[in-house]
């Protein structure tokens, strides 16, 4: 067996111990004689898996009683539509445009009503987070939507926007469980799990109960109503059963790691190794404003496209894979999610240092 250091933005690296456990349980899950993949979601064995996953997530994030936890399908992109279908009662919403995912959510919102771009950082290719302390939030806005960590551009909201009393709806796909959050500051949090938690397809939503109502936009399909999932314990239909099982293992891994405070401290240490290197390098440089840097996604360039391509190629040959940046930013991007060990970041930096020596201009 030979594992690489996988810097993919998503689907992304998972803890090795979780993969090993899943492998060990593949043929016979705890004496049931079958894989979780083959198991009825109505069985008591599966009910225990999903209940434990929810319980562990609640304790990790400190989710209050008046918030529901939903496990759904369709990834984060389906939430771009479910959010307006369920929450846009006045058909008005505010979106803060800090990157491509934020923009996709905004464009989807426009299908259902008036979506305002309350702020944007498009003027400088999304390399910063705009000041959101005093936005022109409309009186009748149903919610304010943000993408909290911008996976492609590598920026992160360090302070949440002032929503002027409107519920904050946040896409946390690429930073969920990377650090503690104060759930009470949000009306709703959602995230596709394939960045920091598990296999693609599953999406987790944490929603304040008063926002889950029958009063949805006309024509909203049963499967796209939060109430359907909330009333049925995320099992109105067959849930993404195997995905939730892996998520549950990652929640357990995080608890054993020491919870989200410990994870945050580790993530800060890891990111610092990479950012400190970039800040002193004469070849590589980070592409975003320092104050807005993400702990999870680190884009960088050399300024020379041919050299960037050579770096990505040589790095892959040395076992550091998926470092090519998104086509809209170019250059490189190292995604250093929870499961990326410090050793992977240190070795990447050593490789970058060596590459720099060999290619100094
Ligand atoms: C990856 C990502 C998405 C899209 O997730 P899908 O599961 O592919 O729909 C949405 N938002 C953010 C912030 C992401 O990183």
Physical arrangement of strands within the biggest beta sheet: 2-10-9-8-5-3-4
Kindly report how far apart the N and C termini lie: 39 Å
Q: What's the shape?
A: globular
Total number of strands: 14
Biggest pleated-sheet summary: 7 strands, mixed
Pick out the low-confidence regions: none
Strand pairing plus helix content: what structural class? alpha/beta
How many helical stretches? 9
Helix content bin: 25-40%
Strand content: 15-25%
Mean pLDDT across every amino acid position: 97
Provide a descriptive summary of the structure in words.
This protein is α/β, with parallel strands linked by helices and 361 residues long. The chain has helices at residues 16-24, 44-61, 75-87, 100-110, 226-231, 241-257, 259-280, 305-317, 342-358, and strands spanning 5-6, 67-73, 92-97, 114-120, 144-147, 149-150, 155-156, 168-171, 188-192, 202-208, 285-286, 297-301, 320-321, 332-335. The chain has a seven-stranded mixed beta sheet with strand order 2-10-9-8-5-3-4. Helix 4 (100-110) links the parallel strand 3 and strand 4 (114-120). The longest helix has 22 residues, at 259-280. The protein is globular. The relative contact order is 0.16. Pyridoxal-5'-phosphate (PLP) binds next to helix 3.
